[in-house]
From TrEMBL:
Residues 2-153 form the DeoR-like transcriptional repressor C-terminal sensor domain. Pfam families: DeoRC (PF00455). Keywords: Repressor. InterPro entries: Carb_Metab_HTH_regulators, DeoR-like_C, NagB/RpiA_transferase-like. The keyword Acetylation does not apply. Signal peptide: none annotated. This is DeoR C terminal sensor domain-containing protein. It comes from the Bacteria.
């Protein structure tokens, strides 16, 4: 239920004509299915999209890279080289941990590097995650919270002091 609410909010932020990056992870996979009927361009490294079929209005571009079956993601130097030449007006990123002091964290260096590049190449960055990620840490810092908004199922006082928190 948390992820459904979170992805409903995020889907409403995406408008026809947008060029977005959609990250890997279970919440972003749910969001992907909700936005396929929009006239948008989606760049992604999320391999869960291979299970989607049917009518799709969105243009979907899959970035290459090394496959990580633990999070259904492509990452590594190939992915990073592609991202260096791409720009997005909105990006929707997942996180394994969000800490008000340490920022966004993820399990691997490759995932952290990918998220950092996307954050640097996006006009607007949204972290799409349920509240269970708040005050958790993973192994590697991806970036600070300063230039992102968090889309989540509920508010958190400490996190909302550092970042815009979108909850409805």
């Amino acid at each position: 239920m948390k992820k459904e609410k979170t992805t409903d909010i995020a889907a409403n932020l995406i408008k026809d004509g947008d060029t977005i990056y959609l990250d890997s992870g279970s919440t972003c996979s749910i969001l992907f299915k909700k936005i396929l009927g929009k006239k948008i361009t989606i760049y992604t490294s999320n391999t869960d999209i291979f299970s989607v079929s049917g009518e799709i209005l969105a243009e979907v571009i899959i970035l290459g890279g090394k496959f990580n079956p633990m999070n259904s993601s492509l990452s590594g130097s190939l992915t990073e080289n592609l991202l260096k030449n791409l720009y997005f007006n909105k990006s929707f990123l997942g996180a394994n941990g969000i800490d008000e002091k340490l920022g966004v964290t993820t399990p691997t260096i490759e995932e952290a590097n990918k998220k950092r590049l996307v954050e640097e190449h996006s006009d607007q960055v949204y972290l799409v995650c349920d509240s269970s990620k708040f005050h958790n840490l993973s192994n590697v810092k991806a970036f600070d919270l300063k230039d992102v908004a968090i889309v989540s199922d509920k508010t958190d006082d400490k996190i909302s002091e550092k970042v815009s928190l979108i909850v409805k």
